Amino acid sequence: MAVRSLLLEPIVPQARAERASAAAIPPPPLCARRLPLTPRTAKSPASGAMRSSIDAAVVQSCPSLTRIDVSCNDLRELPPELGLLKLAKLTIHGNPLRTLPSSLLNGATPKLLEHLRGKIVTGREGSGWEADGATLAAPDLATAVQRSGNELSLKGQSLRELPDGICSRDNLEKLDLSSNAMTNLTDEIGDLASLRKLTLDQNSLSQLPAVLFMLPHLTELSVEHNRLERLPAVLWSAPRLARVSLRANRLTAASLNMPPEASAPIQALDLGENRLGSVPPLASLTNLNELHMQGNGIASLPVEALPLRSLTTLDIRDNDLTNLPPQLSLASALQALSLSGNPLRSVPISVQQKGAGAVLALLARRMPEQ
Question: Which Gene3D superfamilies match (predicted)?
């Protein structure tokens, strides 16, 4: 029968000499699979030994545990693998745990488990795996991926390519590969059939594979601060893609490779800090609510290129706009309009400071009579 509750209770030392002698006696295993389901299962025997560590391998052998009490021991750290358990309660007070902030020591168990899971996927000294260039020495990484739910973060691991085996995890829904050294994303990424959110910020990618946008459940993609120079046209027909951030790359309006009839259900698109030079043909993105095009050297704003009826946020800061077309006032849903950093002559600063409503009202008065 599976163990669900665990108490590791040390005997209070009676004398310094007894404690020193007891230190040579190893504490018992963390749990045994055949113990009965009682509130205080697997109690440490009266050996006088205070537990100084918890074996991560034994933790993984007890996946049904829901409560662990390791209070008043000599633990200086907790194995991150504890975060993989679905614990309702983890009691750790009375231990010299200097690696955990006090807010976690005295806080709720879910927050502590989340912190421990984070130490697994981002690596730590002595955790059993480290990123070494493109290779993860991680015999237990596959287990960690499977047991950590459907999310995996490999942020800041100096990866140059996808680690072996990651793309075989077809249960992955969220994958964070940001802050690495990746220059290429292979077609293997197309094997992640359940992927919903992919973060690739702060790498050195110059292109994205077309298969990425054929993933049936992909809804969020962030590739900020890379070296993208061209996008595959299939991006604009991705079936469920709702949020896309391509900020701080090397994209031009032409290299977006956007067809006249884009069908992707994109709601938020960030093209800021690229090299657009002009407004791309976005009018067919009829679900688009939020559009960022700041810092792109744009000198004119052709309203026929924009989905005016759906836009609620338009960020065109730090461009070269001198005028706004009166037809922009037809964007009746627009609530946020960022214009600073443009040499605008047609809209006084005093009006800009009053917000989108004031700007649209001014433009509406300039609409030609029918």
Answer: Ribonuclease Inhibitor
- List, for residues 184-208, the tens digit of each pLDDT value: 999 999 999 999 999 999 999 999 9
Sequence spans of domains, the chain: 5-105
Provide the 3-class DSSP secondary structure of residue 199. Answer: strand
168: three-class secondary structure by DSSP: helix
**C-alpha R_g of the chain:** 28
User: Which residues lie below 8 Å from residue 71, measured CB to CB, with a gap of 6+?
Assistant: 91, 92, 93, 94, 95
Structure tokens at 164: 């072996």
User: pLDDT by residue (tens digit) across 150-170?
Assistant: 888 888 888 898 887 788 878
pLDDT at site 199: 98
Burial (CB < 10 A; 0-12, 13-18, 19+), residue 139, is exposed
Query: 278-291, pLDDT tens digit by residue?
Result: 999 999 999 999 99
